[in-house]
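Marked as duplicate of an earlier ticket. Keeping the data here for the record.
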Amino acid sequence: ANALKKIIDCGPEGAASFGFGEALGSFLNGDTAMFLDTTVVAGQIDDASKSKVVGKVGWAMHPEGVRRGSQTGGFGIGIPKNAENKEAAFLLMQWLTSKTGDKLVALAGGNPSRFSTHADADVNAKFPHMATFGEALKHADPDWRPIIPVWGKINADLGTTLSKVLTEGLDVQVALDGVAERTRGVMEEAGYYTWQ
């Protein structure tokens, strides 16, 4: 939290209360030097109708410390069990995730899901950052957060608490101790501490 305070102090006015949209908007306007979040914003960064930093952004992998990390995430597709056209939906899913479909998504400015698409010459000619994204993806940790149903509640509490540290001057240790205590309560309520 103290490191986050230092970063915020170096940022634009109001940065302590920024959410994703505000942080991205600030970067697109050229008001911030860096944006460390998600590769999905690359299309907007290169869109002159939305961005003042077109052609001025370089992409790099996260620095290596004890290990190398990477943004991990994406968008999933599925078929609801009550879908009327399950077969058509399945065929669309197959096409979207095929080599051809994935390449077309990438060439349209979307995020590909295949390593081969990140390395594709046509994709890299249009979007040179895709090679970097593909390399970074090799270091992604799919378990960067607990894959449990209550994570959303824990994550929201952590985010709100860190925001209060930044905007209301809440003591860092007191704040994090509170998060730890509430997290334990959420976990106990969800049945994760059954050995007691």
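See parent ticket for discussion. The chain has ten helices and no strands.
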